[in-house]
Specification:
Beta-Lactamase; globular; Rossmann fold; 487 residues; 3 domains; alpha/beta; 13 strands
């Protein structure tokens, strides 16, 4: 039987083309499963000067760390820290080290398992991976979902075509919408103004799109499946989960597959925009990650850490964590008593929410009813409920900020103050907790808190989070820029 050459060997682009390609992606990678060593990178183009440990990290992160997958394909993503100093460490090639924006590489992997009589195990396991410095999950999920099936059928030439397509794209300028050609499709890609900008359907009207056109909001969570499918077992706890994310509480997110865990992590990360996610987040995290010991140990987990996992090892290693979210549909009682979804297969914690968090705000019972009904309803109902779920919690995030933005307005120097003190013209007055809480007591918050005491306690906690410090610093930068432009 003829086997497709699943490699990029022999592909060569001019340095100018490679530079243009790397405006968007760092490399395209193929990973195969070796019976002796496990996942192994078999080709990478353009080559990157990765250490052996980094290459191994990418290889293991590209494969599902889960027994619940038989045959077919699934797409997931991961986030890997790039070492800043690698002097003296063995490297895979003498190629330049990749350049990142935040010290991390983002991987978008489509894993495929197919029957193969020539293999000892009876099937072939391959992942095709897009590596990028850009945190645009919806864009790169779209690319990999179009590229992987063509690659598995036609081999290396499809990866070559993809590289040339991407190198012809316009620059990735924040706040722009571009038409990008990719393997016979036109992608209408809207980039956010900043990584903390909340994107919404606005730029392109459906009437402008042809059958081969796709509209993509680059930074939002991909939505191949209705998001409510992942959170079905915890819909009544979503308000607590949202509070934990905005309060920078660490959270372990367990799921049956990396596809589910990575989608959920991106979704939670998106919900709190424009609040910065000050902690680390890992859409799919394995025990082979170089940061495993630093992030998963007997100590208290770092603030704001979100990690998505599939290996039941993490249930034991993270049992002291304050928040454990297990995704999926609620299991019937017999399965819960047995501790597994099917006899003999340990799948980690049953779908549900285990937390020490005490909720400050009231649930929206109309939204909760819609979500509960959708869980028993049709696919269109689930999609509608998923969008309503996203809109509801992004609205809550914006409501959280209303009292802070109202108070910040009082800190902007007036024109007369600016004239009398030129040194203060481009400075926001200092944020004072007592003055803020006096304003909060006088004007309140749009969020439906259970009581005035809960309202104060919530904001007291939020002012202590690293996310607040980052958010305030960015507000000061914006105000300072406006004041300077007026001076």
């Amino acid at each position: 039987m003829h086997r497709t050459r699943l490699s990029l060997d022999g592909l060569a682009m001019s340095p100018e083309k490679v530079a243009k390609l790397r405006r968007w992606i760092l490399s395209l990678v193929t990973v195969n499963f070796d019976l002796d060593v496990g996942p192994k990178i078999t080709s990478m183009y353009p080559p990157l000067g990765l250490t052996h440990a980094e290459a191994q990290n990418i290889a293991f992160s590209s494969f599902p760390d889960s027994a619940h997958f038989e045959e077919g394909s699934q797409t997931h993503s991961f986030r890997m820290r790039l070492r800043s100093h690698v002097d003296g460490e063995p490297r895979e090639s003498d190629a330049p080290r990749p350049t990142t924006l935040d010290g991390f590489i983002y991987g978008f992997s489509c894993f495929t398992r197919t029957k193969d009589a020539s293999s000892k195990r009876g099937y072939q396991q391959t992942s095709i991976v897009v590596l990028s410095h850009l945190a645009y999950p919806n864009l790169f999920y779209t690319l990999i979902s179009k590229l992987a099936p063509s690659f598995m059928t036609h081999g290396g030439p499809m990866l070559e075509a993809a590289c040339h397509n991407i190198s012809n794209w316009s620059d990735p300028l924040p706040g722009t919408t571009s038409e990008l050609g990719f393997l016979g499709t036109v992608l209408h890609v809207e980039l956010p103004e900043a990584i903390e900008t909340q994107q919404s359907m606005s730029a392109i009207t459906p009437a402008r799109l042809n059958e081969t056109d796709l509209q993509i909001l680059a930074s939002i969570c991909p939505s191949d499946l209705p998001m409510i499918n992942h959170f079905e077992a915890v819909v009544s706890h979503l308000w607590s989960i949202w509070e934990c994310v905005v309060l920078s509480e660490p959270m372990l997110i367990f799921s049956p597959s990396p596809a589910m865990s990575s989608a959920a992590v991106w979704w939670l990360r998106d919900l709190i925009r424009p609040i910065p996610l000050s902690g680390d987040f890992r859409p799919f995290f394995t025990i082979h990650d170089a940061d495993h010991i630093a992030l998963v140990n007997p100590r208290t987990p770092p603030s704001g850490l979100l990690i998505g996992v599939t290996n039941p090892f993490f249930e034991r290693a993270c049992k002291h964590w304050p928040n454990i979210l297990s995704l999926g549909r609620a299991l019937p009682q017999p399965a819960l008593k047995n501790g597994s979804a099917s006899p003999g297969i340990v799948v980690g914690p049953a779908p549900g929410w285990k937390s020490t968090h005490k909720r400050y705000t009231s649930r929206d019972h109309a939204v909760l009813k819609q979500l509960e009904q959708a869980c028993r309803g049709s696919e269109p109902a689930r999609r509608a409920a998923s969008e309503a779920m996203r809109q509801h919690f992004t609205a809550r995030t914006n409501a959280l900020l209303v009292p802070l933005q109202r108070y910040l307005q009082t800190l902007i120097p007036t024109p007369s103050e600016s004239r009398s003190n030129l040194s203060a013209a481009a400075r926001l007055k200092p944020f004072q907790d007592a003055a803020f809480f006096a304003s909060l007591k006088a004007h309140g918050s749009p969020l439906p808190f259970k009581s005035n005491t809960k309202q104060r306690e919530f904001y007291e906690r939020w002012l202590r989070t690293p996310a607040f410090g980052v958010w305030l610093a960015r507000q000061e930068e914006v105000v300072q820029g406006v004041l300077q432009s007026m001076s």
